[in-house]
Design brief:
The protein is mainly beta. It is built from 4 helices and 30 strands.
């Protein structure tokens, strides 16, 4: 009887040891597999974008739902991982000097330039991978505009000893690299544009540029090839404090900057003849954005209480339609594909101040949502609540759309970071 008891005891001990061994193996393998995403490493930009391994794992939709997310495949320890791509995405945590997006088929490519060093970066809308295209040193670039295929750009850098920026043309040129080389696939090569260039705008076809060059009596307007060659003078003007756009083939829009106590004007100039036509003004605090078909103007002016009063001005009827949102035209952009649509960053709550002066000076900041307005029907729709989707307060400006209106890119005025919003998945 004692032998039988001993045998049973040994069998039980063996079974227990086997179960413990299996449990230990499962525990170790589970921790090793699921814990690898907690460390993470910085990418070549020196920061970890939101929702990337090692970054801030914020909600991608603002409400915790995964219905509005797509996934990007990454490799960790030889294991394929699926990382959600957020609808609102942080592209650069460091200040940028300009950006653009272009959609071909179903692929959207986004490029931007680091403001400090001038490195050129690229990503796509369907991946979290960021590629360094060029590390050519081009410091203090604070704005730029790309050509149609995003292979070249014009931009402005600010030197320490000058209040007038230096305008440049730069092109991405491929260069041979090896596995042991520190070179990038491209380098920047270019030239300076005319001295004292105080404003520029790219044509709708993105193969020409308009340059406004300051002289002793005011400024001169030129139309050139995208690289600055074959310049043709189209007008002279005493104006120097202006914003310029080239929204439509036959329209260069020139807005004389207005303040709360000074009137501004909007003019349309024909790029072929140099003929001027006054569209709006005098209006205090005037700021404008002209639609890509030249039919409408989103404008904002200073109200009786120094607040901001926006509206949509129809060129054909010479009438202004009130809008329900209250924001500056500086925080809006018209659609490239859907030309009747305008997107605006709108404060979550009104912020008291003198508009637009206090916003320009940085003495007030806003907490924004993104709204969409149809200029034909008047329909207004909330697109994104940024405060619910980001890890910080966003005061959005410099809004840019790709050619199909699939993605909205913008900067945060508080820290000059760069963000993209997937408009398709925001609907």
């Amino acid at each position: 009887m004692s032998n039988r008891t001993a045998t049973i005891t040994i069998i039980i001990l063996v079974i227990v040891l086997l179960l413990l061994g299996v449990g230990y193996w499962w525990y170790v393998s589970h921790i090793t597999t699921s814990g690898t995403s907690n460390g993470g490493t910085n990418n070549s930009q020196g920061f970890v974008p939101i929702n990337r391994p090692g970054g801030n794992q914020g909600s991608s939709t603002g409400n915790g739902s995964g219905s509005n997310t797509i996934s990007s495949s990454t490799q960790q320890n030889g294991v394929s991982q699926k990382t959600p791509i957020p609808v609102l995405r942080l592209l650069s945590n460091t200040p940028v000097g300009g950006y653009a997006a272009s959609t071909t088929g179903t692929t959207t490519v986004m490029r931007w330039i680091d403001r400090g060093r001038g490195n050129v970066y690229q990503t796509r809308g369907d991946t979290l991978n960021i590629t360094t295209l060029s590390n050519t040193l081009l410091p203090r670039l604070y704005n730029n505009s790309w050509n149609k295929d995003m292979t070249a750009f014009i931009g402005q850098t600010l030197q320490d000893d000058s209040e007038i920026p230096t305008s440049i043309y730069a092109q991405l040129q491929s260069q041979a690299i090896t596995s042991t080389s520190s070179l990038t696939a491209f380098k920047l090569q270019g030239k300076n544009l005319p001295d004292n260039t105080i404003g520029y705008a790219v044509s709708p076809t993105k193969d020409q540029i308009f340059l406004l060059v300051k002289n002793d009596t005011g400024s001169i307007g030129y139309v050139t090839n995208f690289d600055g060659t074959k310049a043709t003078q189209i007008f002279t003007t005493p104006l120097t404090q202006v914003n310029v756009e080239w929204p439509s083939t036959n329209i260069i829009a020139i807005t004389e900057k207005g303040t709360a106590d000074r009137a501004g004007y909007l003019y349309f100039v024909n790029p072929k003849t140099g003929t001027w036509k006054k569209i709006l003004g005098p209006l205090n605090g005037l700021s404008t954005r002209v639609s890509q078909d030249g039919k409408n103007v989103f404008l904002s002016v200073t109200g009786t209480n120094n607040d901001v009063v926006p509206g949509i001005y129809n060129i054909a009827s010479s009438t202004v339609t009130d809008v329900v949102i209250k924001t500056l035209a500086d925080k809006c952009v018209w659609g490239n594909f859907y030309k009747e649509i305008v997107y605006c960053a709108v404060p979550f709550q009104p912020v008291s101040g003198t508009y637009p002066d206090d916003w320009y000076l940085g003495s007030l900041t806003t907490i924004d949502k993104i709204w969409q307005i149809n200029s034909i029907t008047g329909e207004t729709k909330l697109v994104a609540n940024l405060i619910g989707q980001a890890d910080r307060v966003i005061d959005a400006f410099n809004l840019v759309l790709d050619n199909k209106d699939n993605f909205l890119l913008f900067m945060n005025k508080n820290d000059l970071s760069l963000w993209s919003l997937d408009l398709v998945r925001s609907k």
